[in-house]
Design a protein that fits this description.
Distance between the termini: 30 Å
Radius of gyration: 28 Å
Oligomer: single chain
Number of strands: 32
Structural class: alpha/beta
Amino acid sequence: MFSPAGGEVSQAAALPVDGPLPKFEDHAKQEKRYTTCYMCACRCGIEVTVEDNQVRFIRGNRYHPINKGVLCAKGNAGIMKQISPAKLRNPLMRKPGTERGEGEFVEVSWDEALDYLTERLRKIRETDPKKLAFFTGRDQMQALTGLWAQQFGTINWAAHGGFCSVNMAAAGLYSIGQSFWEFGDPDWDRAKYFMLWGVAEDHASNPIKIGIEKFKRRGGKFVAINPVRTGYQAVADEWVPIRPGTDAMLALAMCHVLLSRDLVDWAYLGRYTNAPFLVIDHPGHSDDGLIARDDNDRPLVWDGAGECFADGMTPGVEAALFGEYELPDGRKARTVATLMAEKYLDDAYSPERAAKVCGVPAEQIERLALEMAHVAFKETIEIECEWTDWAGRKHDRFVGRPVAMHAMRGISAHSNGFQTCRALHMLQVLLGTIDVPGGHRAKPPFPRHTPPPIKPARDTAPNTPLSAPPLGFPTRPEDLVVDDAGRPLRIDKAYSWEAPIANHGLMHMVITNAVNGDPYPIDTLILFMANMAWNSTMNTGSVQDMLRAKDEQGEYKIPYLVVVDAFHSETVNFADLVLPDTTYLERHDVISMLDRPISEPDAACDSVRLPVLDVDRNVRPWQEVMVDLAGRLGFPAFVDEQGQPKYEGYTDFITRWEKAPGVGFLAGWRGEQGEKPMRGEPNPDQWERYRDNQGFFQHHLPEHMRFYRFANRDYLEWAKEVGFNPSSEPIVMELYSEVLQRFRLAGEGLYDGPLPPEEVDRARLVEYFDPLPCAYQPLEEARIDTEAYPFHAVNQRPMFMYHSWDSQNAWLRQIATQNYLFMNRGRALEMGIEDESWAWVESHNGRVKVQVKHMEGCEPNTVWTWNALGKQSGAWGLSPDAPEARKGFLMNHLISELLPGADDPRRLTNSDPVTGQAAWYDLRVRITPARADEAEESAPQFPTIKPLPGASSAPGRLRYATHAPVRLHRAFMDILKRR
């Protein structure tokens, strides 16, 4: 039996009758400590019982706003992550004379590592700051890493969102001011109809499980739209097995049904969206498709009462929703609602047409739309509560349409995902379900203005911080990060003509572009918690080759690679410098309102991580290292007037740094005495106050500020006061996107401003930047022979593991140590593929050998697998012959970060053309049975990674105990004689 000390734990002797009672552990030696889980992205509150600097057990914190005491298998298994033999122990440098990727390292001191890195970064910052590329994975502290990059002066920073869910975020923030996942939640307490789109079994984990249980207990109907019936879909009342990548067509066909039956909340559209705004109809001119505006740049509407044009933001105007009008200067204009009706009432979006695309029967599409309309308009709910809208109008109740939705990566990870997400929001808005009782409700600091008024930084200069954050929200071609000739300025080509609204960057393109020197070579690449040599890249084998690639002079094309991680991932193997991070149980951390907070619809919430264990290795939290480096390099925000470090460390920085007066990383207990919530002066005891409150802060909104927040005067004024939004102006939901139309005009050569220099970009802008949500075939699918590759192939994370972090975990490995290719049973048997047999799966880009499992709940022409269970042999502290390496596999080997057969010699990225979102789920494959003589082992296989210096060996037994187990099996007579 494996113990933390590495010894054997003895078994207790059998208990005789009348013998001594079992001796349990001494609870007086144990302490309960509170922190925030990091076994997935939910950020649940946990209570950790600690004894002798070891974790006795972990359980959910019942008072925490996220999980309310619930904890999943991952959270409980944090114990085994903490004692993982894969933990890094010392800073490492690639051994002199060895090649990158050989895994030969020497241990160095922190002083040596940071002195070298500081001087390298200093030279970059003094010459050309953008020669540093800094990209992070699911780090949950992007406000800090982004600030660090901004102070360094590099525009080449982004986080994982570009290959995760930027389509979801961008579509929401450019249309309704919020979105799904961390932006908003279904109103679980009041919803009567719930539709789940493309959500894997791990997304939102504990919160969504709590919500679904609550919802179903109240008798609501749960509809799941997903090609695979696992996880949440398994408990749905109705499962809709849609073809991957066709969700926009399904949603817009539902819009067709609602419009054709006049089942739309027209009052909601007229008051809270841009549906009444007039759109200029002037083909061939630079104003075509733009919103008609008055001399004060205010949107025009037709005032039906006054029979005149009026400012659409003037209270009391009876704006016409439908109509075509002649403007005073003679131009024609139509309302947004008119354009919507013309577009979606066309047969192109009929249920019959959608059925052919989606594989969902037309009758079912119509029925689902009518069911939602019935609940929205016949089962309306009301909450009596006085509130005031932005125009000063008094209301005595909140009216709720109790239809809620949730969506995630199954929607966003397609090259048409941005428009698909907009289509879902269009459907919600037609039903009037955004931020109302029973609908989809924003979570503070959302909703934002559409889009948020932050532009991405463009210009860089030596020893100079950026004038704006590296990421932002373009609203016109002038906001792109391109040079005067229209060429990309960022290494990932975000905010270029190829991906104009790349709000989260294109992390999946960094290595490819840097190696190709396109648009320029870089000097140093820092990767934090980003396993880009394995499961976080779209083309594993090729990317590993790129990391080893050299130029004609024999120098690496990426000269220096710094990897920051807590564990021995596949990417560590390629590092020139490894900086070992702590685990989440060993550090301070913030889940900030400036970043991705843990808020709930009724409350603004943030939280912290507090160290519950002392560090037993030579490792440092990356947060501390960044603050240290910022002081060494003299970043203005981190040094005083004498150029000396301003902060003593990370916790001091979090306490004292302010984004604006009174606004810092933590919103709780501000003010010198901790008396001010949300905004106030720095409080030197702020960390202690969080510790006293079990690691989280919660500011409940009064009832009159909980709904209609896009137009709720008191909420809007409060949101401005606490720093969420720069103004208290109402947030107008944009069903029609003037931003997209400006880019489309640029593609047409009509925009009065910058124009794309290349035809391929012009064509993409015209095709995909539709100002109204649209449906189109995924880009990769349109470029290959779909008859030769008849299957859609997607992957998702299992509920019991997260990314590649947890298939090192001894407890979670007992649930699964390999992944399978899951396939519809009937379809597999038609092809002669038996259950648990081996097969070859081939795409236009690669070939893998996998073990197949049959299942009923799978769309017939879709195959899928769990992501990231497959490992490279020797990584993550696993034995070289571990099943994860020998039988597990990655779908990534089949995917390319570039589109196939592109006519353009640039080779376009395999991403959404609007946001640059990696199109993981556009993959098409063919499947053939493996020969009987082929080894029952996955392919391709990679060389075994060498152990790191001082690394622990993989345990032979998968058990853990802090105490000798007590034998509770007692003799029957002993049970009868005493209690």
